[in-house]
Automatic annotation (TrEMBL):
SMART domains with a match to the protein in the record: HATPase_c, HisKA
Histidine kinase domain sequence ranges: 194-415
Keywords from the UniProt entry: Coiled coil, Kinase, Phosphoprotein, Transferase
EC number: 2.7.13.3
Catalysed reactions listed for this entry: ATP + protein L-histidine = ADP + protein N-phospho-L-histidine
Enzyme class, spelled out: transferase
Domain Response regulatory: 437-463
Descriptive protein name: histidine kinase
Pfam families: HATPase_c, HisKA
Any one GO MF annotation of this record: phosphorelay sensor kinase activity
């Protein structure tokens, strides 16, 4: 911080046009080492104040009847740091003894009255005090200017930091997306290879069975066996395709009403072979019937996927607990609103390593996995999430590192289905198209041709 060293900044402007007051005041100030400038009129006083000055010394008779509007205007337009000191030489004392002094106090503001006659030392003391106050004002101005300069620097620095932060965030997002895409492509490659291998196996069975069916004089028993093999293989291929579609959350679900408790007991027994002998599977479910309406096969697959994740988290040893609760409301999950409707809650709790807080928000993303390369595609929990959403429910997860994880699957609870009506509706009869016309629309020519042949065999007239 610097204070102006311009000698004019501390000069005293003297306005005393009558008598010897001006000359005497300048002589006393000069002898005391103070700069003084005599101005002949009020207008020149205002001009000198506008340029630069440390204080103003005026006589009362000069300003008693003068128009002080220009001076008052200049005083009102001073910057916030400035409060120009005025010294008025009067013959009647201060504001408490002179009406003119009271008026001048209102106009000039920072004013000191010095009654004549006065001792020279008194004048020098009053002027020195005024200049000392003016000097502090200059220091305040310097501090304000320094603060404004620092504020401008901080603004520039803040803009620079915001720009660099935005660039860094953008670069990081691009890098993360590139890494994520690379991981996805790696997983897709692994998944594609596995699917191709499975389909080749299925096609081998179908092709071999068809070749044997073309043989003449094939015994009926063997013909049925090969036809059953083709039918079973097609079912397996359809199931594999359904699982692939489930990964994309586009599978065509076949919902049905079933009792969750019985299904869960069957899965619990099967999980022993999935998890291994060192993992204890515990089922906690009441005997009260509890029904849901969803695709049973996908429901079982979802539970198996969660159990496999639990097994991997426990490194093949621990405790897996399955809990079933009915009449359960749906809590708020991942920012979604809660629901007061009745839901069935199926929870799987493991005693594994837990999930890091930073990974919890991403575990349901397709292809996201914390497992080593080759040990997981990141599609299992994504399939569970897609199944839950398409079934009108949701899935929640709570985890503590080092203690374990709980996945809770919520599905809408429904009333038991009318078994008799279902069985009656399930009765089949011989199909006879009776020559009715059917319009076949199919973008695959081979599938369309095969469908047309089947419809013709059933008595329809396809077009």
């Amino acid at each position: 911080m610097t204070v102006p060293n311009n000698p004019l900044s501390e000069r005293v402007l003297v306005l005393a046009p009558h008598g010897r007051d001006a000359a005497l005041a300048r002589q006393l100030l000069t002898e005391s080492g103070l700069a003084a400038l005599v101005v002949p009129s009020l207008s020149e006083l205002v001009q000198g104040l506008a340029e630069i000055a440390g204080a103003a010394l005026v006589t009362e008779e000069t300003v008693r009847t003068a128009d002080l509007t220009p001076l008052s205007g200049w005083i009102g337009e001073q910057p916030a740091w400035s409060d120009m000191p005025f010294i008025v030489l009067t013959r009647q004392g201060g504001a408490d003894r002179s009406p003119t002094a009271a008026r001048l106090t209102r106009i000039l503001g920072n004013v000191s009255f010095l009654e004549r006659p006065f001792h020279p030392t008194t004048l020098i003391s009053v002027v020195t005090a005024a200049l000392r106050g003016r000097r502090r004002q200059y220091e305040a101005r310097a501090r304000l200017e320094e603060l404004r300069a620092r504020e401008a620097e901080l603004r520039e620095l803040n803009v620079m930091l915001e720009t660099r932060a935005a660039e860094a965030i953008g670069e990081r997002a691009i890098a993360e997306e590139a890494l994520r895409q690379s991981q996805k492509m790696e997983a897709v490659g692994q998944l594609t290879g596995g699917v191709a291998h499975d389909f080749n196996n299925l096609l081998t069975i179908i092709r071999s069975s068809v070749d044997f069916l073309r043989r003449p004089n094939l015994p009926e028993e063997r013909r049925r066996r090969y036809m059953d093999a083709v039918s079973d293989t097609v079912d397996r291929a359809a199931k594999l395709t359904g699982q692939l579609l489930a990964f994309a959350r586009r599978q065509a679900l076949k919902p049905e009403t079933f009792e969750v408790g019985a299904c869960l007991r069957g899965i619990a027994e099967m999980l022993d072979t999935v998890t291994g002998a060192r993992i204890r599977v515990v089922l906690e479910a009441s005997d009260a019937p509890c029904h849901v309406y969803c695709d049973r096969s996908q429901f079982e697959t979802a539970l198996v996927n969660m159990a496999v994740n639990a097994r991997d988290a426990m490194d093949g040893e621990g405790r897996l607990t399955l809990r079933l609760a009915r009449n359960h409301p749906l809590p708020a999950i991942r920012g979604h609103a809660s629901s007061r409707s009745t839901f069935v809650a199926i929870a799987l709790t493991d005693t594994g390593t837990g999930i890091a807080p930073g990974d919890l928000a991403r575990i349901f993303e397709p292809f996201f996995t914390t497992k080593e390369v080759g040990k997981g595609t990141g599609l299992g929990l994504s399939q569970v999430f897609g199944f839950a959403k398409q079934s009108g429910g949701d899935i929640d997860v709570v985890s503590e590192v080092g203690k374990g994880t709980t996945f809770t699957l919520y599905l809408p609870e429904v009333e038991a289905a009318d078994t008799a009506a279902i069985e009656q509706s399930g009765e089949t009869s011989t199909i006879d198209g009776a020559g009715r016309k059917v319009l076949v629309v199919e973008d695959n020519a081979e599938v369309g041709h095969f469908t047309t042949q089947i419809l013709q065999d059933l008595g329809y007239a396809p077009e």
